[in-house]
Fold:
Amino acid sequence: MKKASVCGAGGFIGHHMVSSLKDQGFWVRGVDLKFPEFSETVADDFVIGDLRDQYICRQIVDRKFNEVYQFAADMGGAGYVFTGENDADIMHNSGMINLNMLEACHKRNIKRIFYSSSACIYPEYNQMEPDNPKCAEDSVYPAEPDSEYGWEKLFSERMYLAFHRNYGMEVRIARYHNIFGPEGSWNDGREKAPAAICRKVAMADNGGEIEIWGDGKQTRSFLYIDECLEGTLRFTRSEWTGPVNIGSDEMVTINQLADMALDIAGKKLTKKHIEGPLGVRGRNSDNRLIEEKLGWGPFEPLRNGMEKTYKWIEEQVGDSDDR
Structure:
């Protein structure tokens, strides 16, 4: 039986990845500081442990894994990443996790390790125009990420590539673009735009209003979790190191995203624009390279994923009201 380890298995993407690997017949070990919040893990073994601790990393990398997925990071949405209040924790915690996991896998002679980087590494100067962002993989230099989160991701990318060159590790590096879906953060300050907007719409009375940070004209693309998993697995099992974008190229403004949620909910609400952390003006996944290398790209319309996500968040809001 093939074996896989998922770091960050208590989080959104990691929890879903554990389920996907189990469906494929893998023996799976999950590792995180916490168990998944919204449903039970199906991992064969789940270790509560702090990957900032070298000892913990050595303990959980105790056998030959066919695949290791490194999702663990100190992260969140714009309200967590762009305020500046969490910069030291983000850089220190995520940096330590990657240093420790790479060393532990190298010492155990584990070759294939997937690393989830981020579109936040792309230069701010290429993302000032909301309708024309430049996010091709080769546009990352000269480097100027818009946050310390992006700088840490860029450093860790280079570290993984160095282990690939020097030690022959078969690393796979993907730059995720706003992954969303059910069982993700929706009300803890770390949620991303789709979940935050769905929550606001679900909690608002018809005829009321919802708050939108900024003028709402900033653009983004959002990838539903199922397509993220498919792209990640195809890429990890390919013979190509990357880095590569894994994201949707269906770009929308935040105002359009809110209108989509309103239409799904069947509500009429006023958008109230307020000050808030925004990040870059425009960002969209450039999928030319992944289509060339893997013959694959995301195809599901954003609306489909938003419908599933809104339904799930509406249920969470109802459950919290009942309590």
In short: The CA atoms of residues 154 and 303 lie 31 Å apart.
